[in-house]
Amino acid sequence: MPSKASFVVTTAAVITCGHLGKVQDSPGQLRVLAGGAPVATAADLLTVTGCPGVSGSPPCTGVAWTGLAARVLAGGRPVLVQNPPPAGPVPGAGVCAGPPPVTPLVHLIQLRVTAG
């Protein structure tokens, strides 16, 4: 049975931590593009900037994305995927390093390329 396809995440995606700090993607590859932006892979470093945190806790610092394509690679690494529909903000397929809530929020991603 084929797996459900999910949208491929790119460096142009708008993602925040649960406190609305901006998630910035430092891409691990630059050759494979979707919509003109590098496709995000498991090699990418996702850092959080501008997180206000919560009282008495440090701010969020990064995101470990857990949504990975099972069969699609870019630069030899699995691409990051987000389950449809991405009518943001919706919970992202990852975990933030910081105080609760630890689920990142996806505000905008490309809607043309999917992977399973």
Entry keywords:
116 residues, mainly beta, four-stranded antiparallel sheet
In short:
This protein has strands at 6-8, 14-16, 22-26, 33-34, 37-38, 45-49, 62-65, 68-74, 77-82, 90-91, 94-97, 105-108, 114-115.
The strands making up the biggest β-sheet line up spatially as 8-9-1-13
Task: Choose one word for the global shape.
Answer: globular
Rounded to the nearest angstrom, the radius of gyration is 14 Å
Put simply, the count of helices is 0
Give a written overview of the molecule.
The chain has strands spanning 6-8, 14-16, 22-26, 33-34, 37-38, 45-49, 62-65, 68-74, 77-82, 90-91, 94-97, 105-108, 114-115. The mean pLDDT is 91. A four-stranded antiparallel sheet has the order 8-9-1-13, with no helix packed on it. Strands 2-12-10 form a three-stranded antiparallel sheet, with no helix packed on it. It has a two-stranded antiparallel sheet with strand order 3-6. The protein has 116 residues and is an all-beta fold. The chain has no helices and 13 strands. The radius of gyration is 14 Å and the shape is globular. It is 0% helix and 42% strand.
Task: Please give the structural blueprint.
Layout: E1 6-8, E2 14-16, E3 22-26, E4 33-34, E5 37-38, E6 45-49, E7 62-65, E8 68-74, E9 77-82, E10 90-91, E11 94-97, E12 105-108, E13 114-115
Antiparallel strand pairs: 1-9, 1-13, 2-12, 3-6, 4-5, 7-11, 8-9, 10-12
